Amino acid sequence: MSDGTDDKPFTPANPTCIIATGGNPYLPRPAVVKRIVEENPTVRTLELALADEIDNAHFTYLPGQFLMLSLPHCGEAPFTFSSSPTRSGSFALTIRRAGLLTTAVHALQRGDTVCVRGPYGRPFPLEELAGSDLLFVAGGIGMAPLRSLLAYCLAHRSRYGTVTVLYGCRQPGEFCFQQELQQWRDDRAIHLLCTVDQGDPAWQGRVGLVTSLLDEIEVNPGRLKALVCGPGIMIRFVIGHLQELGLPAGSIITTLERQMKCGIGLCGHCHFDDKLICADGPVFLGSELPNLERL
Amino acid sequence: MHRTLILQKDHLLPLLRKLRKDNRVIAPVRNRFGDTFFTEIEDFDNAAIDLDQQPQTSLKSFFLPQSETLCRYVTGKHPESGALEYSFHAQVPVRTPTVYFGVRSCDLFAVMYTDLVFRRARERDIYYDRRRSDAVFISIGCARPFADCFCNATRSGPFLDMGFDLQLTDLGDRWFVQIGRPRGVRLIEEWPAFFTLASEADRKAQFQVELEARGLFRRHVHVDLAVKLLQEQPDHAAVFAELSRRCQDCGGCAYICPTCICFNIADLRLDEDGGERVRTWDACTFAGFTRMTGDCNPVDGETGRVRKRFLHKLLHDVQKHGRPSCVGCGRCVNMCFGGVDIIRCIEMLAAEGENGSGGRW
User: Fold this and answer.
1) Alpha-helical runs (H) found in A72-171
2) Which residue ranges in chain A fall short of pLDDT 50?
3) Complex confidence, ipTM
């Protein structure tokens, strides 16, 4: 333990994550809803821009990072970006209606103002992914952070090898990003497989858990990096299955969620053994995860 | 500058009175109910400064108040478009130079720990930082440890060799003064008339007091052993399940603990048009601490409610900062009516280590 000298200059642990907040990390900034996409009856994507034009022009983030979003009288909650920073001028959050704040999100209209802090957290390891084949495995709303990374990778396509996307939802009506799904389906360089837990009469596709899709693809452990996001239990089983297929834990990358209050590694809510999801994550390598049972 | 001085006992109050001119002075004061708390002294003639009892609470609330407003927010509808309007306005603390007098080593060590968290983070917490930047500490080495003290085992007392601006040792008719950080030097330079140089005999007397204090601890708590056992095997599911079962979810241990600094942030609606964003103390033992929307909770309260609390102090902070974050003040021992205190936890871990996992406590 060191002696806390008063006037020592502050050295950030991770300078790339620092953004201007006027010196107060708890002060949210207004952002305006530019566009709303209804993804399905319970999920919508908000396209936002910071109200201050200069702030907005300088606003940057990386796939995998998150924002703290505030709505009047509802407090704030963390949401990962679902857009890619390669598209400037606005950013997107894809949000499922589940509680008080997200219900208020679903009442928002174009032109309304919300408030945001961030971006926070460790992004996907973009440098380490370069040169690899990429396998995206998404369950339900877990597609949101992966869509950000996928769009980023497609914008820098020459840096990456083959791209495979496995996307599972409980029911056919739950798939988000329909327009992009069609683009990915039409893109010969992308191998897209979708599945549902439970089909309906109109569903022509696969039925079964997303883990079953892993048996339909070719896994080249030397070249492949897997990016996994979804409910905790799905992440657990996908990581287990990928390891059975020979993929080392260090080649599996996931992003986790927890209750968060500060977003900057202080409030303690997002603890996961010795780690804090907000500051050490939310993106983790499979080899960094302490105990999958408690995912 | 000499690093050791003498302050005659009858010079203490006059010195504090002088300091009071430009600073708030906070000291342990016994109130009319007989309770001793750190309190701002305005009237030195009538305040009962109590250096004989352990203050019931630490300095935590002076740097991280139990409840504080971080920002105010206003909201409404645009008069023409009807669009939602919404903005925040920060409410940062006013700078107030403050002298904390009579701080025990454990409580000062706890401030050094909270500095590590709040001032070495990715972004500096300006609310904590402002209060902390304005602090001067005149600490007191503990000549007589209290009944549940074990700062010898956590190496955060009974005397410190850093962290203080001035550290006093009671030599009977006089205070032995050690000068620590730059603000201690400045304080001496500003008020030299109150101090005289310490003699070799004074230094020997101080050494004697410090040495004797180390032999007066009544509790023998095997902190290092517990840390070692947890490093070997962090799960100890039976110990944590038993302690979790006895925990009544009151949060008292976390509130009384000088190094428990987890907090909550919530909106307090004042009217339709706005409210306050308020930070309050929180406790990782509370059932709702990790609960997410949809009732999803990664921590099972029945068996794991207290796991994080003890692992954080005895294992995770050792991994992160090289030492446990318990300072051995013993306050949680008296606070918990279920007996779920850190000494109990350490004793149960040690017993399990001795008897294997089937050990009885």
Assistant:
1) 100-105, 126-129, 143-155
2) 1-20
3) 0.90
